[in-house]
Recover the amino acids of this structure.
């Protein structure tokens, strides 16, 4: 199909592009890197069809290979209800156009960006995706912070994840995997400390990675003494690190004591 120049076609009464209709659902292909369609999204579209009826046409957008740029959910809902697919061509469109269109209609979450990069073969994002699937209590930003040795307050680093700038070597991936397994072993105690989960998890991970502490001692101390820790304030990680220091240093000689809050302050200067 030849490209259509909207300047020559567009008038008040004439369409800008040709809209096609088909019942051949099998001709459409999922675009490599596009996010998967959630069942909740298909259900939402199906319920809308049942409530207000099927609006014709509400075209999906495909490229010249019939890869879906926009409208995966509509295809599944129409297929489930035996309804026709209306579609238009954006012949040269690819994953970048797909992202842009989806963001404007049903916002991509950070998980969608990670999945997109992973599906295109980006090994850094494949490793991050494996961590997200194995430790699904953690947000993308939390795991980003743990991988990069950061204590996360709020939702920072979203733009770096979206821009494809995340880096995670295989060696660091293995280190993070061990840290996350350590955190998993004290998950009940972490949950028992009042306050921000992201500060608790990323701060303990940071402490395990960056202070030279006796990891076994720290984990055991959290197990036994976590009720002594004050509620964790999202924006003040040093208070939590100070409390971790207090329980870690109990009954230690002065030369073996570590002050995690001071180490953290020095590392951020």
């Amino acid at each position: 199909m030849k490209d259509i120049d909207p300047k020559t076609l567009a008038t008040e009464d004439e369409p800008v592009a040709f809209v096609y209709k088909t019942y051949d659902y099998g001709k459409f292909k999922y675009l490599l890197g596009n996010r998967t369609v959630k069942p909740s999204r298909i259900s939402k579209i199906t319920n809308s069809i049942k409530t207000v009826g099927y609006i014709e046409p509400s075209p999906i957008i495909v490229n010249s290979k019939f890869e879906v740029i926009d409208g995966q959910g509509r295809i599944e809902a129409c297929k489930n209800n035996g309804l026709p697919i209306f579609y238009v061509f954006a012949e040269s469109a690819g994953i970048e156009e797909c992202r842009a269109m989806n963001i404007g209609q049903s916002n991509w979450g950070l998980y969608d960006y990670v999945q997109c990069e992973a599906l295109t073969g980006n090994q850094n994002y494949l490793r991050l995706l494996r961590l997200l699937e194995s430790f699904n209590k953690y947000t993308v930003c939390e795991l980003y912070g743990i991988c990069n040795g950061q204590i996360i307050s709020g939702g920072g680093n979203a733009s770096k994840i979206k821009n494809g700038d995340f880096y995670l070597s295989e060696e660091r991936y293995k280190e993070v995997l061990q840290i996350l397994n350590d955190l998993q072993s004290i998950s009940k105690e972490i949950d028992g400390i009042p306050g921000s989960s992201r500060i608790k998890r990323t701060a303990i991970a940071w402490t395990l990675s960056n202070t030279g502490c006796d990891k076994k001692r720290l984990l055991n101390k959290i197990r036994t003494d976590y009720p002594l820790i004050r509620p964790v304030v999202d924006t003040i990680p040093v208070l939590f690190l100070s409390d971790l220091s207090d329980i870690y240093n109990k009954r230690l000689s002065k030369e073996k004591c570590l002050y995690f809050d001071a180490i953290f302050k020095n590392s951020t200067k």
User: Anything to note?
Assistant: The beta strands are 20-22, 29-30, 60-62, 67-70, 85-89.
